[in-house]
Amino acid sequence: MGVSLSIEVTVPSHVTANELVAIGEQCCTHEDVEGMGVGEALSWAFSDAGGVTMLSTLGVTWNAINTGRITEL
Questions:
Q1: pLDDT tens digits along 18-62
Q2: Cβ distance 36 to 24 under 8 Å?
Q3: DSSP assignment string, 15-28
Q4: Residues 68, 43, 37, CA angle at the centre, nearest 5°?
Q5: Would you tell me how many other CB atoms lie within 10 Å of the CB of residue 2?
Q6: Side-chain half-sphere of 44: how many Cα atoms within 13 Å?
Q7: Contact between 23 and 45 (Cβ < 8 Å)
Q8: What is the 3-state secondary structure (H, E, C) of 44-58?
Q9: Packing angle, helices 38-46 and 49-57, rounded to 10
Q10: pLDDT of res. 3
Q11: Distance (Å, rounded) from C-alpha 52 to C-alpha 57?
């Protein structure tokens, strides 16, 4: 089964974009991470259990919202 979700991310004011990008770069499976933005960094961070842990440690929170698309396997 597959479920389509949207994730609303809340970043505390003390967390910088550079910190988020650094986490994304660590989680990225590609060698070329030059020019990575915050959105891409968060996507990579959420693809890795260690990235999720690092975000949580910084106080980043998130809420998954079901977008209504469910597929059966």
A1: 999 999 999 999 888 889 999 999 999 999 999 999 999 999 999
A2: yes
A3: --HHHHHHHHHHH-
A4: 130
A5: 9
A6: 19
A7: yes
A8: HHHCCHHHHHHHHHC
A9: 120
A10: 83
A11: 9
Domain range summary for the chain, segments of one domain joined by +: 2-71
**Amino acid letter, 33:** V
**Could you tell me which of 70, 72, 55, 57 has the C-alpha nearest to residue 4?**
70
**CB-side exposure of 1: number of CA atoms within 13 Å?**
3
Buried b (16+ CB within 10 A) or exposed e, 28-59: beeeebeebebebbbbbbbebeebbebbeeee
User: Can you give the C-alpha Rg of the chain in angstroms?
Assistant: 13
Phi, psi of 62 (to 5 degrees): -150, 160
Query: Which residue is associated with the tokens 């974009």?
Result: 17
